[in-house]
Structure formats: C-alpha cells, structure tokens
Design a protein that fits this description.
- The protein is about 55% helix and about 0% strand.
- The protein has one domain (about 25-125): Rna Polymerase Sigma Factor, Chain: A, CATH 1.10.1740.110.
- It has helices at about 1-10, 30-40, 50-55, 60-70, 75-85, 100-115, 120-125.
- The chain is flat.
- Helix 2 (about 30-40) runs antiparallel to helix 4 (about 60-70) and helix 4 crosses helix 6.
- The longest helix is centred in the N-terminal third of the chain and has 15 residues, at about 30-40.
- By secondary structure, it is an all-alpha fold.
- The chain has 7 helices and no strands.
- One of its GO terms (cellular component) is mitochondrion.
- One of its GO terms (molecular function) is homoserine O-acetyltransferase activity.
C-alpha cells in the first residue's frame, strides 16, 4: 500500500512500482492491529513523544509488544497450530512464557526491537 500511495502522491519521484504483496483495501482487523502496534509504542514511557533520541532512552517494551502483535498477523491460525501445537516451554505455571509460542513471540519482539527504529515503524504503519 505504501508503494502505491508513494507513486500516486509523488509520480515525479517514482519511475515504476513493483508490488509483491497488497490488497485493494485493508480489512478493519488489519487497521485495528496496526493501531494497537502504534499505541504500544506511543504509550511506552520511554517513547518521549518521539524524542527519545536526545533523551538517551528507547521504547523497548512498546517495540517488543508491537512486534509480537505484528508477528501474529504473518501466519494463519492453522500454521501456528502446526508449528507450535500446545507444547509447553515450561511445565511450571507462571506469568512468564509457558507455551512455546509465547517464547517465540518474546524472542521475535526483542530481536526486532533491537534493530528497528520506533518512529519509522509508526510512520509506515
């Protein structure tokens, strides 16, 4: 969607567009999930209204959760079931990751948060 919009708004800067994954319009669920991802970043106390660069802080928690939410949208429910089933990561009942999928999402969030700029994610979502 961003590539198509860029071509429409700035045709003088765009020679050609190759869209490999797009739809005519997003489903309301997709809009809602992008909203939640943005909200997770912006409600992190370290976001500092986007001025975290100068303050020496980084909205790590918000970025991790935003990525975890995003990761859920990349596969279907059946794919998640086939990949993780209901296997437990830890047999002890606790508030930290118990199921393998929880551990996977936690790792995805942390890995992504260490490499991607929160303000960039806000603007492309």
């Amino acid at each position: 969607m961003c590539s198509i919009l860029s071509a429409l708004l700035y045709p003088e800067n765009v020679g050609r567009v190759v869209t490999i994954s797009s739809c005519m319009a997003p489903y309301p669920t997709a809009i809602a999930l992008r909203y939640l991802r943005r909200k997770m970043i912006m409600t992190d106390p370290n976001w500092e209204h986007g001025h975290y660069y100068d303050k020496g802080v980084y909205p790590l928690d918000g970025m991790c959760i935003a990525r975890e939410i995003g990761s859920l949208t990349y596969r279907s429910g059946l794919e998640w079931l086939e990949r993780f089933d209901l296997r437990r990561f830890n047999d002890t009942i606790q508030l930290t990751p118990t199921f393998e999928i929880e551990s996977y999402l936690q790792n995805e969030g942390l890995t992504f948060a260490k490499k991607y700029d929160p303000n960039s994610l806000l603007y492309i979502s």
